[in-house]
Amino acid sequence: MRVVVDLTKCQGYAQCAFLAPDAFRMVGDEALMFDPAPSADQRLKVLRAAAACPVQAIQVDLADLPTPPPEQTVVAAKGDRLRREGRVVIVGASLAGLKAAEQLRAEGFTGSITMIGDEAEGPYDRPPLSKQVQTGWVHSADTALPRHRDIDADWRLGVAATALDLDRKRVTLADGQDVEFDRLLVATGVRARPWPVPEEAALDGVFTIRTRGDAAGLRERLMAGPKRVLVIGSGFTGSEMASVCCELGIPVTVAEAGTAPLVGALGGVIGRISAGIMREHGVDLRTHTKVNSLQGEDGKLRRAVLSDGTTIEVDVAVVALGGIRNVEWLESAGLAVGVWGLACDAGCRAFTAAGLVTDDVFVAGDVARQPQPMFGYQFLAMEHWGNAVTQAEVAAHNMISSESERWPHLEMPAFWSLQFGHNIKSVGVPPIADQIAITQGTVESRQFVAAYGYKGRVVGAVSWNQGKWLDFYQQLIEQAAPFPLPYDMTNPPPDRTPVPAEFPERVFPAHDATVVVTGHDPSERRATLVGSSRRR
Amino acid sequence: MTEPSLFQEILDYGNRANPWPLYEKLRSQPVWQEADGTYVVGTYREIYALLHDPRISSDAANLLPEFAEKAGPLAQTGNLPPSFIRTDPPRHDTLRRIAMRQFGPPHRPDRIDKLTPKLAAIVDRLVGDLAGRQQCDLVDDVAYPFPVAVICELLGVPEEDEPRFSQWVGPLVDSTGKSSPELTKMRTDAIQQLGMYMFQLAQSKRANPGEDMLSGFVTDDGPDGRLEGGDLFSALILLLVAGHETTVNLIANGWLTLQRHPEVLERLRTEPDFSVRMVEELLRYEGSVHFLPNRTAVADIEIGGATIRKGHPITLVLASGNRDTDCIPHADRFDPDRTGNVHLAFGNGVHYCFGAPLARLEAQLALTALAKRLQNPRLVADPPPYRPSPVLRGPVHLEVAYDGVLPA
Questions:
Q1: What is the pLDDT of residues A143-164, one digit of tens each?
Q2: How confident is the model at residue A283 (pLDDT cuts 50, 70, 90)?
Q3: Is the pLDDT of residue A511 over 70?
Q4: Cis peptide, bond prior to residue B383, ω within 30 of zero
Q5: pLDDT tens, position by position, B330-379
Q6: B77: helix, coil or strand?
């Protein structure tokens, strides 16, 4: 059977780990790891676990559901041709793509769905690839996402979309085929940013970690007992990989160009805590350090030269430098694309290059860049699991709904990470904050919550092994509550005075002057993208 | 005489059998302030929010003096320190973690799972004992002895001591939520004798440890140390009391609900796995813990159009929240096929019921065994007589007539 847990929702109540201990495991007090493909003899226990989850975060395959609930089909209104026989094309056959298809069917869409994906495999879950897969609990091939309902799609896998023709409403595929649509969903996500020097990136032993193939190859290499692993970059993926190496007893060096791990997402105050934990676990963490070159012998990685003047012997390097949004195929489509993704409105409708909203092109997941009404309408792209799900659901709903029935995507951004036995969760948008204050617990105990403030308002929160409180902070953010928090709470920290959050200066894509405006009269004013995303 | 308030009506024993219309009224306003200063909350969203609100304390020390004297009975454990149910983090987290170390994940992940065959065997024996009669009291004959046997198994109480043990557990559990001089005396005596017994058992476990929880408590030190003296005894009493009346009521309420929904009872007989989601729906629809009393605000809290004042007691009416139609579609319908069932029967947040996995399994096994084996079961009285407590609500007796008992 197949299982996935929405770890954005999970609050660590451990009911599943009690009831199906072979399929669900707690790491530390509140972090959950799960087996995405438990064996058949676990079925009843897994069903018990899924039913018992207090936040209903566990999803199992349709075939494993006990009694299929009566079909909640919304009968398509008469004359609603789109709902009955419309053609929906979804480019990107991963989490967002699958969730959108399921949502369409759940809402009674009976037209055709075409799923296009450049990987040969069907939708699978990526978070386990840097955790359970690397520690060997789960095989990378076993991470297929469960199907919550039958989506009856025409699958075009292993073939990338190469172009979009908006006028004729068709997507061109790498094999030359054209697929026509009434509604298009762009859910092409991001790919791993490769090591920038191609010859060095090609060395045997240099990995990125985004796909199943990446994960399987890296796991194999870690099993072979490398002398030392070099992790390049200490965002979430890099930090998780460092944690995995420690768990496996493999010496690891982390090269971080910035001041500390996780600084981009959570700021310098939290970054220092994270750095301390890494070093406690024996990680050779080098901050303010870049990798100057990766060197090999006979095509195999042998050593790395670092900007601190040292050379280290390594046989595996994990390049964890973030992702590149998969928008190249849209470059000539006239849509608002760039290195930050494809821009859309709060209803997931894509913008044209001129900033006009389209009616037929929708976008969801890591590739979407959306204005956040809660955060001053800033356009933000969220590479979060939960965001991919909720955005896909909103996009799918809006695709087949009339204007007055459309939903805005107002989900609070949220993400989690598991490293060195610590469960880190965040809500809101910490990087826009200027201040941070510990609000509950103590940093020393590694159990605390910190709130982020921007100009006197709460805009984010992060918890370390205290995730059950985050719903409270989410409400504060939604209500634009004052920062610092003006009232007493239980488990107060020794010092709750706000301090600077220490985010790196925000980089705006100003160098990426993407648009030229032409024409003079209102009827002829046009914005056109110029060779934008090639310069990166 | 002034009119009784809505909450006083809810507390009135006369409404025990059917509090639901009163709960519906309660939900017309999320937060009610009683004349005595207590705040009563009965809507799903507000209860959920308060259970996650760090301005809510479980520590009686945060009550204003005028409320502290009237603190609930769960706080009155003689000279013992408060169990973790009445503490806040970080102390709560530490005590709970030490207790959890002997009970479940991460340290003993499969303790409850491994117990499943044993639980099934106990249920089979209890249901088997109903054979040769035409009528039983489902409370006295199954729902009550089952959790006693389970806690004995978990703690490592030897089988021959079980009758003595349940003799003390009875008065302790029965006196929860009530007070009279006799009950208090019975309770104090029971605590003393149970204390003596547990002390001796702990000594023998220390010398000769087994796989049980008590052996773990006295021999296995985790990073947080161990429960010593009063803390150990408080935790044991909590596990005994909280693990008892709740499960008894869950099974009894469950059977009552099944008898009132014969089509569901029939599905339980015939559909494998049906008990899993059925019990979740039961927890929502007829859970045992109707109120969570004993919470206090440590700051003024604006919620649901009202302000809960610092130092005042708060009562969360979980059972009302579980029937809140604003958040739960067709909340008054018993629907075991319901998906996304996010009820509050075990609370939520850091105090989420410690024994929930055990309660779930116990109810699933007991109700399934009864459904499969009792032939033509019929309620002798509907509604049955209820226990006095409005907090932990359930039938005091549940007489069931039947034609026979099928073999297991």
A1: 999 998 899 999 999 999 999 9
A2: very high
A3: no
A4: yes
A5: 999 999 999 999 999 999 999 999 999 999 999 999 999 999 999 999 99
A6: coil
From B280, B337, B340, residue closest to A52, measured CB to CB: B280
CB contact under 8 A, B105 and A487: no
Which residues, including other chains, have CB under 8 Å from residue A84's CB and lie 6 or more apart?
A76, A110, A111
Contact between chains at B105 and A489 (C-beta distance less than 8 A)? no
The answer to whether the CB of B54 falls within 8 A of the CB of A490 is yes
> Helices then strands (H, E): number in chain A?
11, 35
d(CA A516, CA A535): 16
Q: Inter-chain contact A45–B113, Cβ cutoff 8 Å?
A: yes
Centre a 10 Å sphere on the Cβ of residue B47 and count the other Cβ atoms it contains: 25
CA distance B374 to B127: 8
CA distance B118 to B102: 18
CA distance A267 to A275: 12
Predicted ipTM beyond 0.90: yes
Kindly give, in sequence order, each residue whose CB lies less than 8 Å from that of residue B71, ignoring residues fewer than 6 positions away.
B60, B63, B294
Q: Do B110 and A54 touch (CB under 8 A)?
A: no
> A17–B105: do the CB atoms touch at under 8 Å?
yes
**CA-nearest residue of chain B to A59?**
B340
Whole-prediction pTM: 0.94
* Sequence letter at residue B245: E
Q: How far apart are CA A176 and CA A33, in angstroms?
A: 42
Residues of chain A found within 8 Å of residue B109, distances taken between Cβ atoms: 17-18, 21, 25-26
Q: What is the pLDDT of residue A536?
A: 39
